[in-house]
Amino acid sequence: MVDKPEKSMKVILVDIEGTTSSLSYIKEVMFPYSKGKLRNFLMEHAEEEKIKTLLEKLKEKFGRDISLEEAIRIFEEWIDKDIKEPILKELQGHIWEEGFISGELKGHIYQDAYQKLKEWKEKGYKLYVYSSGSVKAQKLFFGHTDYGDLTGIFDGFFDASIGSKRDKESYLRIAREVGTDPIHFLFISDVEEELDAAKLAGMKTVKIERYGESKTSKHPVVKSFFEIDLP
Known about the structure:
This protein is of the alpha/beta class. The chain contains 8 helices and 6 strands. The protein has 2 domains: 11-21 and 107-227, HAD superfamily/HAD-like (Rossmann fold, 3-Layer(aba) Sandwich), CATH 3.40.50.1000; 26-102, Orthogonal Bundle (Transcription Termination Factor Rho, Rna-binding Domain, Chain A, Domain 1), CATH 1.10.720.60. A 6-stranded parallel beta sheet has the order 3-2-1-4-5-6, sandwiched between helices.
């Protein structure tokens, strides 16, 4: 059980992959789904404004014209390599939207995460998500779970547009956006480097390690949200 943080704690910031949700579901179901649907999706929607804008961003990134066929190859390669590229995340959000609406996809949420987040919300804590997946994808994910639509639990969502999750400045920006000093935040993640960055920004941190033996960490370590005791 993690000791209770100071009573000044007001904001809980959570990661998704490996924290509130199964890393394997995202890696083994959602990523392959987006890759498998990618070609047909781009072919069918290439003339829509949102996709034309996305493809223009890709051209700007590479500084040259890129054919639709090359764009497909680039996006597929980025998915294979798990590149945290905002352009890809935006595209995946559009593809996943169709999957969630059709019922082919469901947002996986651990029971302990669901119960504790609900409890903390009822206690008056502000809850935010910070994930490399786009805000659109985050809302779709939490909007279509086995527990129903959970987007109402959260007060806001942050993605890579705020900055890298391994950069202290990203957490300072989030604190400014929320309008609360970093010392009043608790950040929960399964990634040591993300937690290091949040701690450097002044936030309290908890590392969640759901599987295997706990590795050496500079942060309090838990196996589930049930071990996090907040006042």
